[in-house]
Amino acid sequence: MATFFGEVILPTSRVFFDDYDDSDNEEEYQVERTLELKLLDEKSLKHEFDLLIIVEGIVCRGFVDLYLINANTSRLAEFRLLVDDKRDNLVEITPHKEEASVLYKLNDKTLLLRTSPAIDIFISNQLTLKVMPWIERCKNIMTFNSKSVCDYRSEIREDLPPAFERMLVTSAVKNIPPGLRFLDQPNFITGFCASVAGWCECMDKPCILHMIFTDNSSLDSITFAPLFKIFETANVKHLIVNKPDSSKLGISCDQSYMYM
């Protein structure tokens, strides 16, 4: 890899957990959720593709919804979390949206996986295994994840722009897009995109992981600037097919970047 891959780090703040953490009986509160695959196009499992784009995070999902997909975009598969009645006993401070992760076909050579907000660090490996048949049939993988600028660790923070990008690449990547900066230590990656990047490194498959850091969650030109830059330098700008009107820009996402 182009930078350090270390151990998986779980959230340390107790606000991420529930009252069952104090229980001595682990089986009392450990409820494993499972993903269900709904295959919509079996032919896609027999076709070879040049690129798979994976998006995670509210800003990246908003960019995809506005510029890359529309009502005419073909759906190949859906990955949905099964509803478990036992989870009624769990307390979630901010429940995730129960929407499916959807695999789209942008054109004959490109796939797009839009992940659900419900896919967290505990379910990332499940989704990786479910998507594996398509990952194996794609020559290149490009992942996008968006986080708050508060998650970016740097000694000098005063000069950071309101939105910027950092990237990681696997060893198999030969052509690195120009003008982009690598994610530096001690920063680290987590979640589904990290799971996919780790698998690609082990299987010697080219994968570029892009991290978008922003100081707010508004879907506007400032927040989207790093994404437009990446699409242009990676020669995939032709995938931007929508031209949303101004009324759809500048709106705030339903998740705040305020922390307890």
Automatic annotation (TrEMBL):
Does the record's keyword annotation contain Cytoplasm? no
Q: Where does the sequence pass through the membrane?
A: none
Keyword Chaperone present in the record's keywords: the answer is: yes
Q: Short name of one Pfam family for this protein?
A: PAC1
List the keywords (alphabetical): Chaperone, Proteasome
GO annotation, biological process: proteasome core complex assembly
InterPro entries xref list: Proteasome_assmbl_chp_1 (IPR016565)
What superkingdom heads the lineage?
Eukaryota
Provide GO CC annotations from the record. endoplasmic reticulum; proteasome complex
* GO molecular-function terms, A-Z: proteasome binding
**PANTHER family annotated for this entry?**
PROTEASOME ASSEMBLY CHAPERONE 1 (PTHR15069:SF1)
**What is the similarity comment for this entry?**
Belongs to the PSMG1 family.
Q: What is this protein called?
A: Proteasome assembly chaperone 1
Q: Which organism is it from?
A: Triatoma infestans (Assassin bug)
